[in-house]
Amino acid sequence: MKVLIFWAVVGVTVSGGSCFSPPVVNISLDVPAEQRWEPLLKIFDKDFLRKAAAEVIDTTVPKWVHTAVSPIVKALEKYVPQPYAGEIRGMASYYQSDISDIVLLNFAYEVSAFCTSIVAQNTKGNIYHGRNLDYPHDILKNITIDILFIKNGQVAYTGTSFAGYVGLWTGQSAKKFTVSGDQRDKGYWWENVISAFLLKSSPVSWLVRETLAEATDFQDAVMRLAKVPIITDVYYIVGGVQPNEGVVITRDRSRPADIWPLDWNMGQWYLVETNYDHWLPTPKWDKRRDIAMKTLNATGQDNINMHSLYQVLSVAPVCNSITVYTTVMSAATPDKYKTVIRETCDESF
């Protein structure tokens, strides 16, 4: 479904309730893949998880796709690499669900992430990265989690995701880089997504997770995110730890269409990416990019920090009625990684 359909019906305010931080889940990479997500059951009732998954699948995935994934389910290890095949099997066991439901759930999140991502550098050369993830299912606010992926007793990388989803759209590798992914509105049909997956291209969120796990620094992360074949177009936004280490990678399925870097010396101290190619105007009905840029300019480079970036991401319509969560992060200060579930667009941090 195209961005247009969602933004034509979505409002720009969120009312009721209070914002809150999601639960934090430790996922050990040292245990077998099938066992890794068992800690979810200490936080969530499995009946609730099944209900949430069914709601997302039924309202997002066309019925014919249920049949199309059958060859993937029948030969999971042939089409799904480890550790994801094992993790999906483990999820199905913990949910007491059919494996096809978990596969469908992961497909559903791959094609419908509407977002705003910002990477900015202040006058001291510090890099800050923030993102809003928008998705038209309120139930996701109740299954959003911050995840610490643990290896050899240490945090290998951090991410924000939904219970039942093995990929990441938001994450941080401490002292190295941060990354977020935004859907690129190219209108690809489900047929293309399924066929690309069957040809063993990577889901966009799996590439984020693999990059967080394996990349040695900002430059390595950018190269990986730019070059590895993926199942659908996307924008990858990456922030580093050194001045000018910020970039928006506009991806086609097989290659980068554009790489847009921060350039402090040329006055480009921030990058704003929503769901459109940055060199093209946004639709008149979608003001997120324009409002974010105006708010950043009003804030000023001297005043950019975690708190002020959160405030930028709280301004309507950058924050809106389908914003599930906001994350702000800086790889240079990894302990400050913060996610807020958006029941309102209140600027308090």
Structure overview:
Helix 2 crosses helix 7 (99-110) and helix 6 packs across helix 7 (99-110). A hairpin with a 2-residue loop joins strand 4 (144-151) and strand 5. The strands form 2 sheets. The protein has an 8-stranded mixed beta sheet, with helices on one face. The protein has a 5-stranded antiparallel beta sheet with strand order 11-2-3-12-13, with helices on one face. It is globular and about 55 Å long. The protein contains 12 helices and 13 strands. The protein is α+β, with helices and mostly antiparallel strands. The longest helix has 15 residues, at 46-60.
N to C succession of SSEs: HEHHHHHHEEEEEEHHHEEEEHHEE
Q: Based on Cα principal axes, name the global outline.
A: globular
Q: Which structural class is indicated by helix and strand composition?
A: alpha+beta
Overall radius of gyration:
19 Å
- Average pLDDT score: 90
Oligomer category: single chain
Pick out the low-confidence regions. 1-16
Residues in β-strands, percent: 15-25%
Helix content: 25-40%
Q: Report how far the terminal alpha carbons are from each other.
A: 33 Å
Report strand order across the widest sheet. Answer: 1-4-5-6-7-8-9-10
